[in-house]
Write a structure and sequence with these properties.
This protein has a domain at 54-92. It is mostly helical. The protein has helices at residues 8-29, 39-44, 56-69, 76-88.
C-alpha cells in the first residue's frame, strides 16, 4: 500500500492563496473614525454654562486696562490659594 503525502509546494501555494484573500478583505475593511464639530458647536465653545464666567478676551482686556490705569491690585491670599490649587492639580 502506498500513501502519498502532501507536497510542501502544494501547502505553500494553498497558504499563499488564503493569505492573499485575507489581505484583500482587510484592505476593504479599513475604516477610520471621523469627528466633525458644527459651526454652532464651535460658536458655543466661547460660552460657559456658568453665568459668572467672562470670555477670556474680555477678561484679558479688563485686566490690561486696570493695570494701565493703576487700579489693578493683586490679593496675596487669592494668589496663594490659586497657586496651591494649581499645585494640587499638578498644573505647575
Amino acid at each position: 500500500m502506498k500513501i502519498n503525502g502532501i507536497s510542501p509546494n502544494k501547502v505553500i501555494s494553498m497558504y499563499g492563496v488564503k493569505n492573499s484573500r485575507s489581505l484583500e478583505r482587510k484592505n476593504n475593511l479599513e475604516l477610520s473614525d471621523k469627528l466633525e464639530i458644527s459651526d454652532i458647536g464651535k460658536s458655543l465653545s466661547a460660552y460657559s454654562m456658568r453665568n459668572d464666567v467672562i470670555p477670556n478676551d474680555k477678561k484679558i482686556m479688563d485686566i490690561k486696562n486696570r493695570i494701565a490705569s493703576g487700579k489693578y491690585k493683586i490679593d496675596p491670599e487669592d494668589l496663594a490659594k490659586s497657586l496651591m490649587e494649581a499645585f494640587e492639580r499638578k498644573e505647575i
